[in-house]
Structure formats: C-alpha cells, structure tokens
C-alpha cells in the first residue's frame, strides 16, 4: 500500500512537470501543417476550407507584407496566409523576429477551448475571450468558429512581443499592443 502511494507521488512529481517542460499542453488527436513561422495543429473535425474562408487574408495584406499566398493546395494556402499575417503583425509592431517558430492550435468549438483553458488554469479565458497565446507552450489557441485574421493578428502580436522582449512588458501593455495590431488589420481590410 505504502509503495503504491510512493509511485503515485513520484509520478506526480516527475512525469507531470516533465510533460509540461517538454511543451505538452495536452492538445492531442490532431492533424498538422507546417508553415515558415508556425506548426499548425487542428482537430480532425475542423474543415480546412472553413478556416480559409474565414481567414480571408487580403490582397492588401500580401502587398504590405511583400509575400504572396500559395494557392496550390488548401494546406499550402492556409500555411502561406498565416505567414503573410505574421509578417503583417511584425511590421505593425516594428518588431522583426527572423528565426521565430511557434504553434497555432485550432479547436472545433468555443466550448472545447474554454474547457481546455479551465483544465490548465482553472479560470475563464483571458485576452480576447475567444483566443489566447501561451508563452509556456509558444502557442496560439483559437477555434474554427473565430478563425479570423484580426483575432489571429492580435494573438500573433502577443507571440511577437513575448519573443522580442527580454523583460516582458506588463499584461496591460501587451494587450494594448496586441489590440493595436488587431486595429490596424481591421483598418486595412
Ligand atoms: Zn490579447
């Protein structure tokens, strides 16, 4: 009996923090696409064409970022649209990260996203309330329902800042700057 408890305690002490340190946030059963700046993970029930229709990266985005969208397949289209958007976020903030690589994790529904965050932090969603960025996992979390360029731009703003500054600005300042990226994207639709 005593040994059994020691095993449980050891597992909690060693395995759980190890999984956390390895960047395992528990987002599982997913499909994967690689872009220049992101690895995009999405649940199998998420429809790629749905994501593309909502994201709708514009001609202006392509012109301003100096990068174009690759239409050869839905996967390449999504990857290149997100790279265009990332360059836009960097330009708006005037913070350029040349070796950045992060993750975007896409849930099918808001309910799943909220349950995921609650499981990790036992609280309501921060940031936009429909998406957030976690520095510990260098990941943007969002749903297929809200997969819009302004919201993703906001989260990319958080990713850029978190990786740009050595000393992190306050949460309030980070929200103001991420909101500024969102505002600029809305303005230049
Ligand atoms: Zn935010």
Strand order of the largest sheet: 1-2-3-5-4
State the name of the first-level CATH class: Alpha Beta
**Structural class from helices and strands?**
alpha/beta
Distance between the termini: 64 Å
In total, the number of domains comes to 1
Bound molecules: zinc ion
How many helices does DSSP assign?
Answer: 7
Major sheet, described briefly?
A: 5 strands, mixed
Fraction of residues in β-strands: 5-15%
Describe the structure.
Helix 2 (48-55) packs parallel to helix 4 (74-93) and helix 3 crosses helix 4. The N and C termini lie far apart (64 Å). Strand 1 and strand 2 (38-42) form a beta hairpin. The protein is 53% helix and 12% strand. The chain has a single domain (25-187), classed as 3-Layer(aba) Sandwich (Collagenase (Catalytic Domain)). The protein contains 7 helices and 5 strands, in the order H-E-E-H-H-H-E-H-E-E-H-H. The longest helix has 20 residues, at 2-21. A 5-stranded mixed sheet has the order 1-2-3-5-4. It is α/β, with parallel strands linked by helices. Bound molecules: zinc ion. Residues 127-128, 154, 158, 175, 178 line the site of zinc ion.
